[in-house]
Write a structure and sequence with these properties.
The protein is built from 17 helices and 13 strands. Helix 2 packs across helix 3 and helix 6 runs parallel beside helix 7. With 457 residues, it is of the alpha/beta class. The strands form 3 sheets. Strands 11-10-9-8-7-6-12-13 form an 8-stranded mixed sheet, covered by helices on one side. It has a 3-stranded antiparallel sheet with strand order 2-3-4, sandwiched between helices. Helix 8 (218-226) links the parallel strand 8 (206-211) and strand 9 (231-235). The chain has helices spanning 2-6, 46-54, 61-72, 76-92, 108-128, 162-175, 193-202, 218-226, 241-248, 253-266, 285-294, 325-330, 388-394, 396-402, 410-413, 425-432, 440-452; strands at residues 16-17, 22-27, 30-35, 40-43, 96-97, 134-138, 179-183, 206-211, 231-235, 271-276, 298-302, 361-364, 370-371. The chain is globular and about 70 Å long.
Length: 457
């Protein structure tokens, strides 16, 4: 009875969305809500979505029920019971706020069992509805480091200003984008970065920030923590300062990056430690993994080095020697499931199209160019000249790209290693100059994965 009283609601109570700690969008008529601090994922049915949209901190519960009753014509006693039950549940989950204190009840086991299924359904809905659920937005190509493996080539064009970026964020929010990654270059080289990030959160994006952390101080860490980002990723290439700094070509960068990670951890910001495995640090990635555990951070490692965006293949000189690939791919670290990117998991419709790029995700350059993804240099239009909606819905280049099916890449589709392969048409393009010519490196990986008995599809 005491527990029930904590959530006893009367019809004259005002409720508001917990906007500081959630990200949400209405996708296909259903509200998708992420609690950023608790890492929970919620999808509401049509009736619950209608109630959710009416909650504004100014409308009484009795007014909400009356509005829903007029639209749905549900029997009043049933509607009252369903509505109050829904609101109590939203309070328990921390998605709503009210004047009185609420005790948090969370069934993490149940969340773990249902989150994946809900998210798979959302991805399918985004692709079939052509909704840009995920956007990666590079705010600048300027960087204070000069990493040996960097693929970026700054074309010295005029970058988007804060006002233009905010306008694009408005357009993305309206189009249905929920997950927004802000990256570079180094985002903190922009003096207006925090202004832009605050605006993004005001629009209820689930915000991801990619940074090297070397320009972060206590004040910046406070600001970022106040945004409740879904995740901040910091790049660490070795736990040995001399190796990390050799890769970044910046003495002292290791300690600055570690300091940034510790500042964010101390502020309960969800962290990811990202590393790229190459010749220089082949023996260090396990130490970086252990470091991520000490920092209570997720861990992500990649060993694919790509040519620069202008075709220059000099970064490939640091690619890990092929003889080490079986060792890397056999390492249990790479089979751990932390938080995969929304377009990375193969299931359902993802077994008919190469990936989610251009279907449910896109990439925007600091100059306003829209590409299907970071890896694929197909310019679909410029946001200084035309709206995002026009590009996303009507770009001939994007339409042509969307028409590609895995079965069109016949050498892959008919290959004995297909079930073990991570096809990337972007990697095909930058390495072989054709989306339909498989990357030789990807083929080697698939062969090794078959030997290890690890299917990817």
């Amino acid at each position: 009875m005491e527990e029930e009283n904590k959530f006893r609601l009367s019809s004259d109570v005002l409720l508001s969305k917990n906007k500081e700690e959630i990200a949400y969008r209405i996708i296909g008529g259903q509200a998708v809500i992420i609690h950023l601090k608790r890492n929970t994922f919620n999808v509401l049915n049509t009736l619950a979505t209608q109630i959710w949209q009416l909650i504004d901190g100014q409308t009484l519960i009795e007014q909400i029920i009356e509005s829903v009753y007029r639209e749905f014509k549900v029997e009043r006693p049933v509607l009252n019971q369903d509505c109050f039950g829904f609101l109590r549940e939203m309070l328990k989950k921390g998605l709503l706020k009210t004047a009185f204190p609420v005790k948090v009840i969370s069934d993490q086991k149940q969340l773990a069992e249902t989150k994946g299924e809900l998210f798979d359904t959302l991805r399918e809905k985004a692709i079939t509805g052509q909704i840009p659920l995920v956007a990666h937005f590079d705010l600048t190509y300027k960087c204070n480091l000069d990493c040996v493996h960097c693929y970026i080539v700054d074309k010295n064009r005029s970058v988007l200003g804060a006002k233009e970026i905010k306008d694009i964020l408005d357009q993305l929010a309206k189009a249905g984008t929920l997950y927004l990654t802000l990256s570079g270059g180094e985002v903190l080289t922009r003096k207006d970065f925090l202004e832009i990030a605050r605006y993004a959160r005001k629009l209820h994006f689930a915000l991801r920030i990619l940074t090297n952390g070397t320009l972060m101080d206590e004040t910046t860490a406070d600001e970022i923590a106040s945004l409740n980002p879904e995740m901040v990723a910091i790049s660490i290439y070795s736990t040995k300062p001399e190796i990390h700094d050799k890769i970044t070509k910046a003495p002292g960068s290791f300690q600055k990056s570690i300091s940034a990670a510790e500042m964010l951890r101390d502020r309960d910001v969800r962290l990811k430690i990202s590393t790229v495995i190459m010749k220089e640090n082949m023996g260090d990635y396990r130490d970086v993994y252990e470091l991520s555990r000490q920092l209570k951070a997720a861990f992500q490692a990649d060993y694919r080095i790509t040519p620069k965006t202008d075709g220059n293949k000099s970064p490939l000189a640091v690619h890990v020697d092929e003889k080490y690939l079986p060792e890397l791919l056999a390492d249990p670290i790479f089979t751990e499931k932390s938080e995969p990117e929304p377009q990375e998991v193969y299931s359902g419709i993802f077994n008919t199209i190469p990936c989610g790029a251009g279907h449910m995700s896109c990439y925007i350059t600091p100059y306003g160019d829209v590409y299907p993804c970071v890896q694929l240099p197909i310019n679909c239009g410029n946001l200084k000249e035309v709206s995002f909606t026009e590009i996303w819905n009507n770009s001939p280049e994007l339409s042509k790209f969307r028409s590609i099916k895995i079965s069109d890449i016949t050498s892959c589709f008919q290959c004995e290693f297909f079930r073990y392969c991570r096809i990337c048409v972007g990697l095909n393009f930058v390495e072989e100059s054709s989306m339909f010519s498989p990357s030789k490196r990807a083929c080697r990986e698939a062969r090794i994965m078959k030997e290890l008995g690890r299917e990817r599809r």
